[in-house]
Amino acid sequence: MYKKIVSVLSRNSKMYFRNRIMHQGERIIQCLSLVMIVVASGLCISIPFFTGVKIEWKKRPLSLESSPYIQDLEKLCHVGVNGRSWEYIVIHHSATAKGNAARFDHYHRKDRKWQHGLAYHFVIGNGSFSGDGEIEVGERWKKQIHGAHTANMDCNRVAIGICLVGDFENGGSPSENQLESLVRLIQYLSRKYNIASSNILQHKQVHQKCTACPGKNFPFAELKTRLLQLASKGNNHMQEL
Ligand SMILES: [Zn+2]
């Protein structure tokens, strides 16, 4: 009798669980069906909007290589010695397709026999041997000593030399990242050392022997416009504060 009761109970419980599993299975199928109906109706609604319209996928976010090379200029330009009173900023191109601060330093030290090496205070890379738009700081800046970037020594004593890697006379023009870094660097330096806009020069504007530097393709007018825009943005921001 006891065994019979147990077997009946066991049979009933098995049936109960089987029914419950089947019930759950049905609910899952019902849910999936509902999802498919929603998706299908969504497609039906959206397809007419795209009929004859070229679908353009959302552009991929800018990669690290093509995004502006943002560096902390305060940290980058910090010097551990007494600052010099800089009055000018002179812009150069390297007149080479490739390069970086270390390579130019080697050339200036070994070939040109300049004791302090790299003639410039800053070099802005083009992605060849340093980042595209990467600002490298030369030893002359760290030690706050004169540059050797123009043939005019009076100018070298008071002018910060910035070189952009590239040949903008016979090659192309600066990359967007280089230009953006140059704008930021000039804005930072001219504010810090109170350098007037009229004292931001291209190498060829310095009175000395003839040079095309930084090349006919260097967008000097564009640079000046961007500096003005940045300055007015800064002023507006100050007024808002
Ligand atoms: Zn130059």
Structural class, by secondary structure, is alpha/beta
CATH superfamily of the largest domain: Peptidoglycan recognition protein-like
Strand order of the largest sheet: 3-2-4-1-5
- The number of helical elements comes to 7
What is the number of E strands? 5
- Main β-sheet, in a few words? 5 strands, mixed
**Please, how many domains?**
2
Q: Strands, helices and their partners?
A:
Blueprint: H1 2-50, H2 73-76, E1 88-93, H3 101-111, E2 122-126, E3 132-137, H4 139-142, H5 153-158, E4 159-164, H6 176-192, E5 200-202, H7 220-240
Helix pairs in contact: 6-7
Zinc ion binds next to loops.
Q: What report would you give on this structure?
A:
The chain is α/β, with parallel strands linked by helices and 241 residues long. It has 2 domains: 1-53; 73-240, Peptidoglycan recognition protein-like (Lysozyme-like). Helices cover 46% and strands 11% of the residues. The protein contains 7 helices and 5 strands; from the N terminus they run H-H-E-H-E-E-H-H-E-H-E-H. It has a 5-stranded mixed sheet with strand order 3-2-4-1-5. A hairpin with a 5-residue loop joins strand 2 and strand 3. Helix 6 (176-192) packs across helix 7 (220-240). The longest helix is centred in the first third of the chain and has 49 residues, at 2-50. The chain starts with a helix and ends with a helix. The relative contact order is 0.13. Zinc ion binds next to loops.
